Amino acid sequence: MSGWGTPSRTVTLGRVQPQAPALRTIYCNHREANFAHRYKGNSISTTKYNVFTFLPKGLYEQFRRVANLYFLMVSILSATPYSPVHPITNMVPLSLVLLFSLIKEAFEDWQRFQNDMTINNTLVDVLQAQGWESLQWKKLQVGDIIRVKQDGFFPADLLLLASTNVDGICYIETANFDGETNLKIRKALERTWDYVTPEKACEFKGEVQCEQPNNSLYTFTGNLVMDNQTMPLSPNQILLRVFSEYLPSISSNVIKACT
């Protein structure tokens, strides 16, 4: 019961926005279980336009430039009966500039599309039915176990499970990321060192409980749960897509995919 003289207050309740869970659970080597979470695919697209948006978005980008907008206004004014010049003298140069600019944009976007197709169709070895099967990068799913060979690139953000080195170490190159040419060391958890061959990798069952995808490249928070044993993960076991594998061949688990 409120006391006398206490001023009344009105509380307005707003709609609560749904929030993503703080952690995501990834079932290793179990596509059916991960399908229910509807994780993003691994296909990338860096194009700016598609068939339907090219003309409106392209014109919008052109008229964001002050010069093009100025000549558009001049062309409109020249079409009025008060203009001393014929409108074609302004419209033709502007139309040619827009035409060549749109052709240039279309050509550059086509090149980006071709580059995306090349990357998405690159092959990687994925564990399927007790053997390695070559699949396109775009067909990778979260939770897949893959094998990356020497001098290969990582098709997604990966958790290092094993290496052909007996101590679970691999060497990666990060020149595409930070420009450094010296090799970095990544080391798998000792508990997973034995999962090198496809026969052994098929026996790997576990869960990765980790943070949601974010833009942090130097930190990682997560745990690997195997046989009721929880083992903490660190950036030392994470292989980002921007890295390339130098030595030796490794087995990895896909923990993040891109769009």
Automatic annotation (TrEMBL):
Pfam families: PhoLip_ATPase_N. It comes from the Eukaryota. This is P-type ATPase N-terminal domain-containing protein. GO terms for cellular component: Golgi membrane; plasma membrane; trans-Golgi network. Residues 26-90 form the P-type ATPase N-terminal domain. Its main location: membrane. It is found in: Endomembrane system. GO terms for biological process: Golgi vesicle budding; phospholipid translocation. The keyword Transport applies. The keyword Transport applies. InterPro entries: ATPase_P-typ_TM_dom_sf, ATPase_P-typ_transduc_dom_A_sf, P-type_ATPase_N. Keywords: Transport. GO terms for molecular function: ATPase-coupled intramembrane lipid transporter activity. It comes from Gossypium barbadense.
